[in-house]
């Protein structure tokens, strides 16, 4: 009986290790959904107005902090936003970096 319990403990530890060291990836559908939300948040922003830019930055931060998007890397976010709204995303990044 002890042998079976030991085997179960070892299998559980191996399973936990696999889960921790091989994290899940976000689906392309989830990445696209987040990019759509980001593009909506920065659409119509006056990039020369600091208050408008800050409101957009806060909105983007709130979107990226959502639990459903926690598996999306910053690189995936950047690539998806560049694809969905290239002009606005480039302007947003440039203006944000100047803040």
Quick one: how many beta strands?
0
Q: Cα-atom Rg, whole angstroms?
A: 20 Å
Q: On the 0-100 scale, what is the average pLDDT?
A: 82
Assembly state of the chains shown: single chain
Number of domains: 1
Report on this structure.
The chain is mainly α and 99 residues long. It has one domain. It has helices at residues 2-21, 28-42, 50-64, 74-84, 86-98. It is elongated, with a radius of gyration of 20 Å.
What keywords describe this structure?
99 residues; mainly alpha
How would you briefly describe this protein structure?
With 99 residues, the chain is mostly helical. Helices cover 75% and strands 0% of the residues. It has five helices and no strands.
What's the structural blueprint in terms of helices and strands?
Layout: H1 2-21, H2 28-42, H3 50-64, H4 74-84, H5 86-98
Helix pairs in contact: 2-3, 2-4, 4-5
């Amino acid at each position: 009986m002890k042998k079976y319990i030991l085997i179960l403990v070892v299998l559980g530890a191996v399973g936990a290790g696999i889960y921790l060291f091989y994290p899940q990836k976000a689906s392309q559908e989830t990445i696209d959904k987040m990019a759509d939300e980001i593009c909506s948040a920065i659409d119509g922003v006056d990039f020369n107005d600091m208050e408008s830019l800050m409101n957009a930055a806060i909105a983007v931060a709130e979107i990226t902090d959502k639990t459903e998007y926690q598996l999306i890397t910053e690189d995936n976010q950047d690539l998806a936003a560049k694809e969905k709204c290239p002009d606005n995303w480039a302007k947003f990044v440039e203006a944000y970096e100047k803040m």
